[in-house]
Design brief:
Two copies of one chain form a homodimer.
Chain A lengths: L2 E9 L6 H12 L5 E14 L6 H13 L5 E7 L5
Antiparallel strand pairs in A: 1-2, 1-3
Subcellular location (chains A, B): Cytoplasm
Protein name (chains A, B): Phosphoribosylformylglycinamidine synthase subunit PurS
Main location (chains A, B): cytoplasm
Chain lengths: 84, 84
C-alpha cells in the first residue's frame, strides 16, 4: 500500500519573509490593490509505504533530517486523498 | 472582508522535477526505503479583499502575470479557513 503525505514548510511567524514581501509589492504594482499580503512556502508530496513505519514517524524523521530548517521554518502535514 | 487563498504551483506531469529527484535520493540514502518518491512545489498564501474583484479572477490574473511559469508549471488553488 502506498499513501501520500503533503508536508508544508513555512517560515516561522517571527521570521521575515523577504520573498513574500517582494511578491506582494510586485503584485500590487501590477495593479492589484485588492491583494493585501502574500506569503510563500514550499511543500513536499511524499509517496510512502507505511507497512514498516507509521506515516507520522517517517514525516517527522525526514523533516528533521533534511526538509526543514528548524531555525527559521516550521512544518505541518496532511494526508492526501488518492485522486489528488 | 478579507479572505485567504492558497495557490499551489507544481511542475506539469510531463516535466522532470530535478529537485524532487535529488531529495528522494537523499532521503532514501539517509535510511528511508519506505519513501518511494518525493515531489516538490511552491505555494502562495494570498490575503485579499474580494469586494471589487472575485477571488477566482484575482488568482487567475496574478498567476498569469507573475506567479506561474506556464511553460513548465501548473497551478490550482483553494480557499483557506480562517483558523489556518
Amino acid at each position: 500500500m502506498t499513501v501520500k503525505a503533503r508536508i508544508f514548510v513555512t517560515y516561522k511567524e517571527s521570521v521575515f519573509d523577504p520573498q513574500g514581501q517582494a511578491i506582494t509589492d510586485a503584485v500590487q504594482s501590477l495593479g492589484h490593490p485588492e491583494v493585501e499580503k502574500i506569503n510563500v512556502g514550499k511543500f513536499f508530496d511524499v509517496q510512502l509505504d507505511p507497512a514498516t513505519k507509521s506515516v507520522a514517524q517517517t514525516v517527522s524523521e525526514i523533516s528533521e533530517q533534511l526538509l526543514v530548517n528548524f531555525n527559521l521554518e516550521t512544518y505541518r502535514y496532511e494526508l492526501l486523498e488518492e485522486q489528488q
